[in-house]
Specification:
Helix content is 70%, strand content 5%. It has 562 residues and is mainly α. Among the domains are: 55-260 and 289-343, no CATH class; 399-523, 3-Layer(aba) Sandwich (Rossmann fold), CATH 3.40.50. Strands 1-4-3-2-5-6-7 form a 7-stranded mixed sheet, with helices on both faces. The termini are far apart.
Length: 562
């Protein structure tokens, strides 16, 4: 006869799979399905909450994998570009939201925890949206990714701080003691683990046993997590440090690949068990309170994001996109809720209320982000009579070359991998060209090389005008952002209809979209790679040049007819 606990675990997994499936069908994040599954399961099987201890494994594995995906070098790089923005956003929104939570009836400790939790945005949601829209490599995509990484890392000191709140005595001294302990642990990990542990894992990997490698990694993570817990620090910090140390080894990707399925399993259990704590009656009874928290978060978090991004020198579409894209509350807030519940710092009823608001922000984010560009255009237009305000919505651009105005030249929009190769070819043939890019690092490097560059968003009319778009021979659209592509193409077709437009695309639907826009030449790197591979295969099979040429011609014709 199976043990009751075993049956409960099976129930959790079944409900999680059903909830996750429904969420994906509704194009929502799986975690929403897991939480709803937990709410339903907890209503029918109250005893299911007895397996909530398993959720702690999910937290440990989640933070262990976060450490694996990072590295000391990556952290240093991000800290140079995103640390200030990410930290400012957390501090400012926490200071604003703390009195709000106090005002609506939560006590001081609960309000502080919720303020810190709500300052974090969702890495899972935002990364998925950026990937689906092909905007990962855009300027706003890079900024958002950097901020999210900093916010993910901020979970560690927040959890340490919360643990100190539940330790009794003065929270200031408790916090200071916890942070000092954490500092020594982190320093020890950097000094001793950075070289020793990668060496050990390299030797383990040399025996060619995947099972041994994964067992060793999980064992090491558990050991470090346990040691940090003995010091009175959250085991989550230990798990994160273990992952960070292993990330320095060449085996880190192999470990991550093996651990990820196990992590996803226990993280799903974590969110389901969190759903046990949510009472639908509480959310229904406190509907207006949930709505108020949701509205406050979306509005004021957007405003704070906008002020911070402006302070960092970003304007126009980038500023609006970042502001709206990071307006939701992230999945790590649930980790903070869980830790706070274990310490008895917040009540299950309070968690039910704020969880309802968190879910609403996650559900609303894709819609708000989709409207970012139209909203930016609207704000730019209505503020034209107020230059002091309009300047925040106009990206602008500046030339970094002193040559006379070019004519009959090529305008390269985006100097990534595609734009870079085009620029090299044009430079080798002495063809005049101008580069537009929204990355200040790229512009700075190109400027050192003596190339004609303009800093700014290629979708901004002012930037295109600075590049002499009206007198250009052609414009190469090498930016991945599909929305910016459309804005850029429409503007060029309107004010310079004789300028040839050559655009890269990534997805098949993008190719169809640009075909409708009547772009002169559409290049899909993946399709061109397929053509090259096909040519190589046919030649290796002994096909004649004429037959190969005919086959490739037919492929291109069939593509154009789609």
């Amino acid at each position: 006869m199976p043990e009751p606990t075993f049956l409960l675990v099976i129930l959790v997994l079944i409900f999680a799979s059903i909830g996750g499936f429904i969420a994906k069908k509704l194009k929502a994040q799986p975690l929403i399905g897991y939480l709803v599954s937990g709410i339903v399961l907890g209503s029918f099987f109250p005893q299911a909450s007895s397996i909530s201890k398993l959720s702690e494994i999910g937290i440990i594995l989640l933070l262990f994998s976060l450490g694996l995906e990072l590295s000391f070098s990556k952290l240093i790089k991000v800290f140079k570009t995103a640390l200030l923005g990410g930290i400012l956003q957390i501090i400012i929104f926490s200071l604003i939201s703390y009195p709000f939570f106090l005002k609506i009836g939560f006590n001081s400790v609960t309000s502080l925890i919720f303020a810190l939790s709500f300052s974090l945005s969702s890495t899972a949601v935002v990364v998925k949206i950026l990937a689906d829209r092909g905007e990962t490599e855009t300027r706003h995509g890079a900024i958002m990714s950097g901020w999210l990484l900093v916010q993910d890392l901020a979970v560690i000191p927040i959890v340490i701080f919360i643990n100190s709140l539940g330790g009794g005595g003065g929270w200031v001294s408790q916090s200071l003691g916890s942070f000092l302990k954490a500092f020594y642990v982190i320093l020890s990990a950097i000094l001793f683990g950075r070289h020793i542990v990668p060496f050990i894992f390299h030797k383990i990997a040399a025996v060619n046993s995947r099972e041994l490698l994964v067992i060793s990694a999980l064992g090491f993570s558990g050991m470090v997590a346990y040691l940090t817990s003995l010091l009175g620090i959250s085991p989550a910090l230990g798990a994160f440090l273990a992952g960070l140390v292993i990330s320095e080894s060449i085996e880190n990707h192999a470990v991550l690949g093996e651990v990820r399925p196990l992590r996803d399993l226990f993280v799903a259990i974590f969110f389901v068990t969190l759903g046990f704590l949510i009472t639908p009656q509480v959310i229904i009874h406190s509907f207006w309170l949930v709505s108020a928290v949701f509205a406050f978060t979306m509005v004021f978090k957007t405003i704070v994001n906008f002020l911070v991004i402006q302070a960092l020198g970003h304007r126009g579409k980038t500023a609006v996109s970042v502001s709206l894209g990071l307006s939701q509350v992230g999945e790590f807030s649930f980790v903070i809720f869980s830790q706070s519940l274990l310490k008895g710092l917040i009540s299950p009823n309070d968690v039910s209320i704020v969880t309802g608001a968190v879910l609403l922000t996650i559900v609303a984010t894709p819609y708000f982000f989709k409207k970012a560009v139209p909203f930016w255009i609207y704000l730019k237009n209505i503020t034209q009579r107020a230059p002091w305000l309009n300047k925040y919505f106009v990206g602008g651009g500046f030339k970094d070359f002193g040559e006379p105005e070019l004519t009959d030249h090529i305008v390269i929009c985006g100097y990534g991998r595609v734009g870079g190769w085009v620029g090299r070819a044009l430079s080798d043939t002495n063809t005049p060209f101008v580069i537009i890019d929204s990355s200040l690092d790229v512009i700075s490097n190109l400027k050192k090389s003596g190339l004609p560059v303009i800093f700014g968003d290629p979708a901004e009319p002012e930037v295109l005008e600075a590049a002499g778009i009206r007198t250009a021979r052609a414009v190469v659209v090498a930016i991945p952002d599909r929305v910016s592509q459309e804005i850029l193409i429409s503007y060029v077709q309107t004010i310079a209809p004789n300028v040839k437009i050559i655009s890269r695309v990534h997805l098949d639907e993008d190719w169809e979209r640009l075909k409708i826009l009547k772009v002169d030449k559409i290049i899909q790197p993946e399709f061109e790679a397929a053509i090259a591979i096909t040519k190589t295969i046919l030649i290796s099979m002994g096909k004649s040049k004429e037959e190969v040429r005919e086959r490739l011609k037919n492929l291109r014709i069939s593509r154009s007819l789609k």
